[in-house]
Amino acid sequence: MTAKKTRHILDTIAELFPDAHCELHHSNPFELTIAVLLSAQCTDETVNKVTADLFRKYKSPEDYLAVPLEELEQDIRRIGLFRNKAKNIQSLCRMVLDKYGGEIPRNHEELVELPGVGRKTANVVVSNAFGVPAIAVDTHVERVSKRLGLAAPDDTVLQVEQKLMKQVPRDEWTLTHHRLIFFGRYHCKAQNPQCDICPLIDYCKEGKKRMKTPVKRKAIK
């Protein structure tokens, strides 16, 4: 894809969602890390409902370790995979206390060593909590990138991230991440994408198939 086409896609999505942002409620890096860990295979809406009570009860890593694992499991039982996530939260808190003095590390390489924290979670934390440019590829970012031709259909999540990093200016990485999520969550949905009103339909092979008759719009060459 040409730089001009990429720029057009980014600018169009920016116009649609100028106020895109992280929708996980948090007040510090520690809460954000817990929230992102909980969000795996779960909606941000559900996570926010759970953390509204969770973050009132647990303020620090010590708080999560002061209760039995079974109690923490009950506190997050509305979250998918809650047992495994509860175990990871306590293991993460132990490592944060033992290795990092109770503070979430700012370094990406250190973050991914924490239990339950993968590359995507680390990218979300460094970009939103510490202001380090990053593109976290979740299911929405992956879907939108592949549909619009920013990545190939068979690319891995890492390949999608690497291609986006090459095509998007570094100072726009974090904002682009949020905008792609909003575009995927509220417009280019997995099951019922709004192809009939999509300003980027010309870039989307899947969208054209859904529409049967391609929508005529001036494409960027």
From TrEMBL:
Q: How is the cofactor bound?
A: Binds 1 [4Fe-4S] cluster.
SMART domains according to UniProt: ENDO3c, FES
Q: Which Pfam families match?
A: EndIII_4Fe-2S, HHH, HhH-GPD
Q: Which residues form the HhH-GPD domain?
A: 38-186
According to the UniProt record, what class of enzyme is this? Answer: lyase
Cofactor requirements of the protein = [4Fe-4S] cluster
- Task of the protein: DNA repair enzyme that has both DNA N-glycosylase activity and AP-lyase activity. The DNA N-glycosylase activity releases various damaged pyrimidines from DNA by cleaving the N-glycosidic bond, leaving an AP (apurinic/apyrimidinic) site. The AP-lyase activity cleaves the phosphodiester bond 3' to the AP site by a beta-elimination, leaving a 3'-terminal unsaturated sugar and a product with a terminal 5'-phosphate.
Q: What is this protein called?
A: Endonuclease III
Q: Which organism is it from?
A: Paenibacillus hodogayensis
Q: Which gene specifies this protein's sequence?
A: nth
